[in-house]
Specification:
The chain is mainly α. The protein is built from 20 helices and no strands. Helices cover 59% and strands 0% of the residues. The chain starts with a helix and ends with a helix.
Length: 440
């Protein structure tokens, strides 16, 4: 559109516009870019180029251009377009980038938690839960529901402590998603950006005489070049009037087709946000619900059973102990799994902190505040959650293995050997797959 509207003057100065879009892309993909400073610099560079073109009968030096830039706020050569565009672009890009970063952190947390090793006590309890009925010639007997819940709550005690921060993180993600659906979504800002920049150029053209007069007052009269404007290609100055054009007239250059692809991506993104919002809502209380999910339905083959017709850990009959509360501190009296409540899992604690940091960033993004995402190498904590992405967040190379994690067994024997094969398939992989289903 700029080529058609402004022709040669645009093509001779196109790097000013190309740099703008390159910096916007670098910001979105995780680069350390100050959006406000970058946008201010764009308008300053545009003012300098246009002033030089519109005053080609003078010698405009670098020092003179630097003086012009100091009067940018007073001159307002582009009207109120820069102010409005800055508000829209910063809000839209902050929300979009933070939302993508938030999804990355959620994925990283789930992956790291799925690799947490189970304790020997948990492995013995799981083996007793699932395999001991076989030894008593009751292969069809399934565990009592409350018995299953106590085992799972004991095995997943540390994971349940994620729930509070996880729920706050989900709520913050949903808030930012509202921004992406509202007036600050990427497509509604970027689609007409060419028109808005062109309007700004027209404003300066219409006020070029007054702008030049005020610049001459503040910076002094520049030296004449010895050439009249007409001899320097006045027709090539920014003198074309902007006219809207239909989609059929869109340029077929590499830049034009690239912009069309971006429009397609942003349009798809709008539909994805709606879909992701529903999945995010469904993942609230995921970690505290996990024992219930594993002890009900066909997924774990632990369906609803009568109180007298289930495996209670010893024989066929009723299970009497009470179901324990969620979380590490709630397992002090767990009758099935011995849990050391004084030693929280360090990996889980790191992920709680990662969620807390990301939640704070999401809330800032919702309020339009810019955020700097550190690379994982700069975090220092070793968790790496919340690190910046590049163009596309890469798939983790250290994804959860289907093999059993190495566990230091307190003693060797058939129970521990069987449990090593059992634990990953039941607690770790089921939990990872269940969450992956929500976040995919």
């Amino acid at each position: 559109m700029f080529v058609r509207t402004y022709g040669k003057p645009y093509m001779q100065n196109s790097e000013v516009f190309e740099n703008l879009f390159a910096e916007l892309k670098r910001y979105y993909t995780g680069g350390n870019v100050n959006l406000e400073e970058m946008l201010n610099d764009f308008w300053t560079r545009l003012l300098e180029r246009m002033f030089t073109l519109l005053n080609s009968q003078y010698v405009i030096t670098e020092d003179y251009l630097e003086c012009i830039s100091k009067y940018m706020d007073q001159l307002k050569p582009f009207g109120d377009v820069p102010k409005k565009l800055k508000a829209q672009v910063t809000r839209a890009f902050i929300a979009a980038r933070t939302f993508v970063q938030g999804l990355s952190v959620g994925r990283e947390v789930a992956q790291r938690v799925s690799k947490v090793n189970s304790t020997p006590s948990c492995m013995r309890a799981l083996t007793k839960l699932l395999y001991c009925p076989l030894c008593q010639a009751m292969p069809a007997l399934k565990p009592c529901r409350n018995y299953c819940l106590n085992v799972m709550k004991g095995c997943l005690a540390n994971q349940a402590d994620l729930d509070l921060e996880w729920n706050q993180y989900i709520d913050a993600m949903l808030l930012v998603a509202q921004r992406l659906e509202g007036p600050f979504n990427i497509e509604s800002v970027m689609d007409p950006i060419d028109v808005k920049i062109s309007e700004a150029i027209m404003n300066m053209q219409d006020n070029s005489g007054e702008v030049s007069y005020r610049v001459f007052q503040g910076c002094g009269q520049p030296k004449p070049s010895g050439m009249r404007r007409s001899t320097r290609g006045v027709p090539d100055v920014f003198n074309a009037r902007f006219r809207p054009y239909s989609p059929e007239e869109r340029p077929t250059t590499a830049a034009g087709t690239s912009l069309d692809r971006l429009r397609t991506i942003w349009n798809d993104m709008q539909h994805s946000v709606v879909d992701i919002k529903e999945k995010l809502k469904g993942s609230r209380k995921f970690w505290s619900r996990l024992p219930e999910d594993l002890c009900a339905g066909e997924r774990s083959s632990l369906g609803n059973l009568t109180e007298e017709e289930c495996w209670n850990g010893h024989t066929r009959g009723r299970y009497f102990p009470e179901v324990q509360r969620d979380g590490l501190t709630g397992q002090v009296n767990n009758p099935e799994v011995s849990v050391d409540i004084t030693r929280p899992d360090t990996v889980i604690r790191q992920q709680i902190m990662a969620l807390r940091v990301m939640t704070n960033k999401l809330r800032n993004a919702y309020n339009g505040n810019d955020i700097y995402f550190q690379d994982s190498s700069d975090e220092g904590s070793g968790s790496g959650s919340g690190s910046g992405c590049t163009d596309v967040c890469p798939t983790e190379t250290d994804s959860p293995s289907s093999e059993a994690p190495v566990v230091e067994a307190g003693r060797s024997g058939p129970v521990e050997d069987s449990a090593r094969l059992l634990v990953p398939s039941l607690t770790l992989l089921l939990s990872a797959l269940a969450l992956q289903r929500h976040l995919r």
